[in-house]
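look at this:
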Amino acid sequence: MFTATSSPTVALRRLEWDSLHFGVPVAELPVPEMNDEDLWGALTTARAEGLRLVYWATYRERTLPADLLAEFHGLAVNHRVKFVASLNDLRQSQTLTPPRSPGRCVDYRVGELPRGPASRELLQLSIVAGGHSRFHVDPRIPAGQFRELYEVWMNRSTLGELADVVLVATPSNAPDDFAGVITLSETAGAGQIGLLAVREDRRGQGVATLLMTAAHDWLRQRSATEVSVVTQLENRAACGLYSRWNCEAVEVRQWFHFWPQAADEGR
């Protein structure tokens, strides 16, 4: 075991919303490149300041000493990957025709959801969207708090706070039977996908393809030239979907969660 020989130069950034949601003081280390000594020092400071949870996003292949992870109850929770695609290229390239799934059901349609509180079905889909989330992977975060986090995200999206539009896929003969959902926002020509989920019993029927097609059409109608989305590298289905649309992985970050308090003070 080692200890930091000097005070770390990286300041902890307290996260007010996360602290309120999880009911404990939460902060993040905003610099991806830190050596082991400075990281130890920063986490020692976090412990002294009473912080219970600290996030750190660093480089994809970063490894940490076992004693540091043990001392601060650290866990490598996942790898976050950002995909970006040019909508102009998507429109012009014949190779980017939406792929057809062998089990594709042609009876689905995609439409805009009117603004308002999220339905129970959409809240359930939000949980599906977060299946590989670091908040789901970390066993110290109660399942109820993970679910509530994604339900809040969905509800604020359907209310128009975190998304400009919510598109839902439904069977043509059952307009209230939500098979999948995608949330979108657009700013200054840049589109962003927020949540994307397909109900488990509707997978393999081309629902995600239909949602992606509709999302690109919606963005083009607003003169957007690119679209981006963030997911987890561990979510192979999502990564495969975006790769089929020639989305380029432009950034991968490994996320760590640290719980600096002693084990008997932990959650």
